[in-house]
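Support case: magnesium ion complex. Customer-provided input:
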Amino acid sequence: MKASEAAKLMPPQPFFPSYSPFQENHVPATIYYDADADLKHLAGKTIAILGYGSQGHAQAQNLRDSGLNVVVAQRPGGPNYDLAKSHGFEPMSVEDAVKQADVINILLPDELQADVYKTAIKPNLKPGAILMASHGFNFHFAQVEPPAGHDTLLVAPKGPGHLVRSEYEKGGGVPCLIALGEGASEATKQIGLAYAKGIGGTRGGVIETTIAEETETDLFGEQAVLCGGVSELIKAGFDTLVEAGYQPEMAYFECLHEMKLIVDLLYQGGLEYMRYSVSNTAEYGDYTRGKRVITEETRAEMKRILEDIRSGQFARDWILENRAGAASFKATRRREREHLLTETGRSLRKMMNWIDSKEV
Ligand code: NDP
Ligand code: MG
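Agent response - structure generated as follows:
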């Protein structure tokens, strides 16, 4: 077959354009700051925050402190219910919160949202109410599909809830992403920017994106780099040292504990500051050995992981896993905790009372 014929069968993939890691002429993202957003677009409206967990407790309090009208839905019987009460909210059922809301932010675990949407949200929507989320999974993979007349909107803080709250209290804010669902109006965008301002996001910057881009990059980041990549990298390093006869305590410090020191440098000044700060020996080892760990094969696997996300395969797996009572998820969670790393870390952290150790 001629190359031109092959090209017809396999059109170029728009998502993998010819990319050079050294390219300089990319189009900068649109980023909104305080002056681009006006809280008046939410004045007189009721915002329902569904769930008082990590994101819920932070967003609800920040919005209220910004002078907006917030109601909280939180099931009773757990610590988050008491927390909401202690913060001065009157937690109610999802149904009751949705009935009075003009803007509804679903801040329940992603795997529960579809069920709660069908049973408790959809039947109680006020005309024109806007549905929001902080992660696009259920919008993008068609698990939450509101009827005509209801826009969807994403305002996604790029940090965990406790930081969304603490940064706001300090006068700062965690940067956010904003994305509109298909067909959403300009008025909804203004509401989204006002919401982002209300939680402090416009202080740090609010990047305009699409629900597809947020969902796909977020899933990819956590699978390939932040959670999946880092966990396996740590375990592989730890196992290698322990199998070679080194003490597990040494392996723990080297491969896990010190990760924080490196990540702090990366956070402050990128790869260049980390490499500036470590010894020349470490920097030389980085350049000459790193590519033997993350090989061309690893990069090819990353592309397959991304393709699983984009094709909906990952979403399907995760949705079906939950339909099966998360049997395999729970078994894996249990087995992962049996790793030698877990015990080693637990006893070492006991001796480091200054690190604010958190034991699960
Ligand atoms: P959490 O797990 O911290 O909180 C979940 C909330 O849902 C809690 O209020 C919990 O109540 C409630 N809930 C859990 N199970 C049920 C149930 N069966 N019935 C009714 N309520 C239930 O969630 P997050 O804040 O982490 O996540 C919320 C959303 O924010 C997700 O879409 C997530 O992707 C997104 N997000 C999260 C980030 C993070 O760092 N955590 C960052 C950016 C986005 P209870 O306490 O009673 O269990
Ligand atoms: Mg993420």
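The CA atoms of residues 249 and 348 lie 8 Å apart.

Case will auto-close in a few days if no follow-up is received.
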